[in-house]
Amino acid sequence: MTDSAKYSPSGSDTAAFEALYVAHHRTVLAYCARRALRSDAWDAAAEVFTVAWRRLNDVPSGDDARPWLLGVAYKVLSNQRRSAQRRRRLTSKSAGTAATADLLPEAQLIRNEEEAEVIASLAQLRPRDREILQLSLWEELRPEEIACVLGISRGAVDQRYSRAKRRLARQLTRYRQIEGRATRITTERGGAT
Question: How much helix, strand and coil, in percent to the nearest 5, is found in the chain?
């Protein structure tokens, strides 16, 4: 392909993309930051908007753009995780050691003990359960938007969400039984609750 035959965006394409970016970049970046390390989150958000630029005609208009972009972000982050796992396995294999799981980035954002309990319990859930709860509660997506992000039916969203909530409730109960009522801070300092 010659340089003259390369795609050249029109002014309306550029304006549409800029409007999309301004309206949704912060949301996409926040979504990525809750699921990846900070540097990876910025890379993932950039990749999401690269895909959006390439597929600008496929991006839904209005409020439907948000779940579409988060669906792309979900896939980008999944690819990042798979690549990181492959690198860890390769590194471990070459070093002759077992790969260790990364800590969830959410653990770095704990502000109080209740959040710590929920985050610890979420970490014990299957990734599929964790993702549907996060999309609903943290990203505040409606079920039909979650269906768009995950590429599943609305009915499947309802079923998965209901099961995930039950599993989280059971996990929270287990966590509280194991940890007791003492907060980590008072337990570490040897104080009373």
Answer: 75, 0, 25
What's this model's pTM, rounded to 2 decimal places? 0.56
Given a contact cutoff of 8 angstroms between Cβ atoms, the answer to whether 95 and 88 are in contact is no
pLDDT at 18 over 60: yes
| 172 and 122 assigned to the same domain | yes
> DSSP letter at 121?
H
For residues 15 and 91, membership in a common domain is answered with: yes
User: Do the Cβ atoms of 105 and 42 come closer than 8 Å?
Assistant: no
Residue 153 has phi, psi (to 5 degrees) of -75, 160
Q: What's the CA gap between 162 and 150, in Å, rounded?
A: 16
Q: How far is CA 24 from the centre of its chain?
A: 15
Q: Which two tokens stand for residue 36?
A: 């990846």
| Residue 94 belongs to a domain | yes
Whether 82 maps to a domain, the answer reads: yes
